[in-house]
Predict the structure.
Amino acid sequence: MFSHCEGYRIEGGVTDGETNWNNNFSQTNSNDNKVMASIYKQQFYGKPHKTFMSLSSPNGPILICIKKVGNSSDDFYLLVCTEKGFEEVRANKDSLQKSKTTRSFLKMRPTSLNVITSVRPELTKVPLSKVTDKSIQEELVKVCEPEFNKVIKAAVLYCKESQRDDNDMLKNITTNASQEYTDFLNFLGEKVELKDFTKYNGGLDIKNNAHGTHSIYSQFNDVEVMYHVATMLPFFPSDPKQSERRKLISLDRVVIIFNDGSKPMSPNCIKSKSTQIIILIQPIKNFVNNSKTTIGISNDENRVVGDQPSPSLGTTTTTTTTTTSPTINSNSPTQSNKIKYRVSISNREEVPNYGPPLPDPPIFEKDDSFRNFLYQKMVGGAASLRNTPMFTSKNSDKASALINVISKYSTKGMEQI
């Protein structure tokens, strides 16, 4: 579990007593954590629609996408984009303001400009231009796409006994990891070959194996998740910092740590400003089913580990190591052979509360119920990050990117109307 650390909110208990349950979760509006598809990608990208823009509207640079909805040609759907954000507008023929034009007198269907100026009267005298260059779609989908939309990339780190931070954990390789860790990866998702991988790749190289040959991938409902698994990324013995691994993992906002050690960890064990949520998974052996429990430590069987990197020299040696896992003891023990995990979650203080809450005690069997909880928690956490200062500051970058797109296409691929 996690120890107390200033600047972090911990779910799942702290280390100053089992009775000190710390789950400061308060249910928020479920819509706040809803993972929504990008409006532009879902409604307009690659579909029949028209795009209009202007650099000089009362609201500053503006871009409007409009399309007809359904079988009726009298219903319209608009996406209005300015530097302040994005707004959806729906309109139908009956709700449009009656304009005293030849078309209205002749009872002709309104044009796209009629619709736009009816729902946005302030644009009546604004010189809107129609964009004819279809390449704008590729640029707009990048600007409009939220980071935690239908895809999530998350890191997975393996922590051995006596390891304390990412400097140690990044030096671990597959052959010095425990069987429990390997089993957890198989439980987490599917091992996929990266070369020519056609689904969401999470920024991993799928051409030249620069990020290894395989990774862990999964789908939860309609959300794709690609993991940056540290032990599956290339290991460079000559680099004590494992810079290539760090480049990827330091950008992940959600990190899972599988802890084979027995000592508590500090939430600041990962030295990255991007990391906002850490989910700590600790295997429990010989679980005892009792309502009043205390944590004890028992030695596991010895394992011979080959090709283990030296923390200081980065060389490989063959060593024998003894690993420990927590076991739960009780006055009236009823042992179970089922694999169980203790879960603790660390959030930076600015991360809004999100669900589902951890149970008390935060102990799960290795089954579909736990897997569903884990993915619901990751999706909820990823969605909540949209409201953090780090993410909202990026929204200003998106506004600048939108203005750049409008400026770029105002000089090409335009039809003055």
In short: The mean pLDDT is 76. The CA atoms of residues 135 and 413 lie 9 Å apart.
